């Protein structure tokens, strides 16, 4: 699904389609930024954060400050140390 905005650019409106595109960007670039994705897809930053949270639960991405990184299954996750 897509709509055309005033500038003639196509904007995606489907959640699953947008998430697929975010996955492709992560695979190509290794990381994404919330503000960039929000502007690109014409949705709120809250929507993008929800998308990234969903992708993190799926094991596809790891959220980071302001965005997310592609989840590399060959790199062990680092657990924060608790009270030393």
From TrEMBL:
Signal peptide span: none
HTH deoR-type domain boundaries: 15-70
Keywords: DNA-binding, Transcription, Transcription regulation
GO molecular function, one term: DNA-binding transcription factor activity
Highest taxon in the source lineage: Bacteria
Basic and acidic residues composition bias: residue spans: 7-20
InterPro entries: Carb_Metab_HTH_regulators, DeoR_HTH, Tscrpt_reg_HTH_DeoR_CS, WH-like_DNA-bd_sf, WH_DNA-bd_sf
Membrane-crossing segments per the record: none
Annotated PANTHER family: AGA OPERON TRANSCRIPTIONAL REPRESSOR-RELATED (PTHR30363:SF44), HTH-TYPE TRANSCRIPTIONAL REGULATOR SRLR-RELATED (PTHR30363)
Protein name listed in UniProt: AgaR family transcriptional regulator
Lineage: Bacteria, Pseudomonadati, Pseudomonadota, Gammaproteobacteria, Enterobacterales
